[in-house]
Amino acid sequence: MSIPDETVGDERGEGFGTMVSTESAEDTAGVTDLDGGEELDDADDGPADVGLLEQEGDIAADYIEGLLDIADLDGDIDMDVEGERAVVSVVGATLDELVGDDGEVLEALQELTRLAVHRQTGVRARLMLDVGGFRARRRSELAEFGRTIAQEVERTGEPKKLRAMSPFERKIIHDAIASAGLRSESEGEEPNRRVVVFPAS
Amino acid sequence: MLEEALEHLVRGIVAHPDDVHVASRVLRRGNVLEVRVHPDDLGKVIGRGGRTARALRTVIGSLAGNRHVRIDLLETGEVR
Prior knowledge:
The complex is a heterodimer of chains A (201) and B (80).
Chain A: H1 25-29, H2 37-43, H3 50-71, E1 76-82, E2 85-91, H4 104-121, E3 128-131, H5 134-156, E4 160-164, H6 167-179, E5 183-187, E6 194-198
Helix pairs in contact in A: 3-4, 5-6
Chain B: H1 2-11, E1 21-27, E2 30-37, H2 42-46, H3 51-63, E3 70-75
Parallel strand pairs in B: 2-3
Antiparallel strand pairs in B: 1-2
């Protein structure tokens, strides 16, 4: 986020004062790694409970709609089930406030929305939130980037480490690399986790 | 609007939404949004490594037009 303020950056949590020490591991244990959709995607291929996914979509839509009302933002909400996850999309005119320069507001809002869903369903939500088609656009750009990298690695025969990316971005890259017949892995810790692309062996 | 938005976002994720209260306070160094939650919910609104708190701040900061907004999270009744 580009808050023009000296406290932003390396100490982004500063504004929350000293209460952080009271964090309860118990409270957060069930909802950790909520955006780890990347790893989860291969992990649970159980049958999708469409009823649950629709319920997730409804809860998420209420949560987002409430925010739009309060912030006086125009936006319509579309709900969909895509594969194994609920997708809630906000479409409307000017929604930059909910996306951010590089999608960081969207990621934050998605995280909160998943927590709101989790509170009501008791199930870890993998719901995807999109605003103004940001993810759809980003997805096609990243898939293209992934294909370019695959060609480069194939040509050079050398592994290539990419920049740090969000789980959403990494997932798209992994898929593009796999489609090109190469192998990729993620390494490092969030938020510096990055994809490494390997030549076919 | 920011208080209301923050209250909405926090109420949606806690076990005791009725105990969530947000107040805007003017301090020497600028405005602070002070969020009070049920003691059992404090860990939840902070999140692992502070990530939920950070997410709240990111969204509210953006709604504030990228002005810096300080958000303090406290337990109900906590004296500061």
